[in-house]
């Protein structure tokens, strides 16, 4: 009897110690309703209710599981590289700043204008490369304007300084263009610069193709950053398709044929014929051959019927 009651209340979720105490107080022959009332009076709760009342602790998740995105957020990684439909942007900071300063002043405000333009479009991965020696105070031979903008962009993890140092009073500067092209190539992004990087094109044939296809040039018009609407020429993609990972192809617009039904070009006609939309566009000679073959084939079938037993 004791074991059966113990099993019964254990299935309900009560602890064995509480059940044994109640059975000792009420006796082994106590009714199940009385035992249940005594358990409730003692404040004992089933384990299922206790687990619902208590907040669930944080669980360790295996590597590569579905919650890996949360881990990437904690680590501060950019989750926009794979999910975003827009291409990453890599800006040649020196080229943009000197262009905004009319090649006389390193204007940091020009870099801010370019970054804001891509932010408004929805780009989340934006990197600006600037040589480290631009942190030095402004001088007459290399004037810098609005230098505080570089510090703000660095805090936002947008600006990256390429390394440089001084050896025996001479400045040793690493080639920042190589950083720009390499990062843009690895991220499959877009390079924002008016430089053609011809020396890097000659080094690597893959970089040559990438620079030719992914270089976005620009202009500054009254403190307004303006890239062209046709980055690769009149017959190339639009700016929206150029900056998108999945370009949207425009619907073909057909121009109706000026000759209409009197057109004699057949399938060689480059214009649209609404009367031929459901027909195979054949040339005039092909249409005549088809008409001639049709009665000949009918005559051969009739002859075969006459000769057949």
From TrEMBL:
Keyword list, A-Z: Endonuclease, Hydrolase, Magnesium, Metal-binding, Nuclease, Zinc, Zinc-finger
Gene3D superfamilies in alphabetical order: 3.40.50.11980
Domain C3H1-type as annotated: residue spans: 251-276
Stored CDD domains: PIN_Zc3h12-like
Cofactor: Mg(2+)
One cellular component (GO) term of this entry: nucleus
A Pfam match: RNase_Zc3h12a
Stated name of the protein: ZC12D ribonuclease
Protein source organism: Anhinga anhinga (Anhinga)
Annotated gene: Zc3h12d
């Amino acid at each position: 009897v004791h074991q059966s009651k113990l099993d019964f209340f254990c299935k309900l979720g009560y602890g064995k110690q509480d059940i044994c105490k109640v059975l000792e107080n009420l006796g082994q022959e106590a009714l199940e309703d009385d035992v249940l009332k005594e358990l409730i009076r003692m404040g004992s709760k089933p384990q299922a209710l206790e687990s619902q009342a208590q907040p669930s602790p944080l669980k360790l998740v295996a590597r590569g599981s579905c919650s890996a995105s949360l881990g990437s957020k904690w680590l501060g990684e950019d989750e926009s590289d794979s999910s975003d439909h827009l291409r990453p942007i890599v800006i040649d900071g020196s080229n943009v700043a000197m262009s905004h300063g009319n090649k006389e002043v390193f204007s940091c405000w020009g870099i801010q204008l370019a970054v804001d333009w891509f932010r408004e479009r929805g780009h989340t991965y934006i990197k600006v490369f600037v040589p480290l020696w631009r942190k030095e105070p402004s001088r007459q031979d290399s004037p810098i304007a609005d230098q505080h903008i570089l510090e703000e962009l660095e805090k936002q993890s947008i600006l990256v300084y390429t390394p440089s140092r001084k050896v025996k009073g001479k400045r040793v500067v690493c080639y920042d263009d190589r950083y720009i092209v390499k990062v843009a190539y690895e991220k499959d992004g877009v390079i924002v610069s008016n430089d053609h990087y011809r020396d890097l094109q000659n080094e690597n044939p893959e970089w040559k193709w990438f620079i030719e296809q992914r270089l976005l040039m620009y202009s500054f018009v009254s403190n307004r950053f303006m890239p062209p609407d046709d980055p690769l020429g009149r017959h190339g993609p639009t700016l929206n398709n150029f900056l998108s990972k999945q370009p949207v192809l425009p619907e073909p617009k057909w121009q109706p044929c000026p000759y209409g039904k009197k057109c004699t070009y057949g399938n060689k006609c480059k214009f649209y014929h609404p009367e031929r939309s459901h027909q195979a566009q054949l040339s005039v000679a092909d249409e005549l051959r088809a008409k001639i073959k049709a009665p000949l084939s009918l005559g051969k079938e009739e002859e075969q019927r006459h000769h057949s037993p």
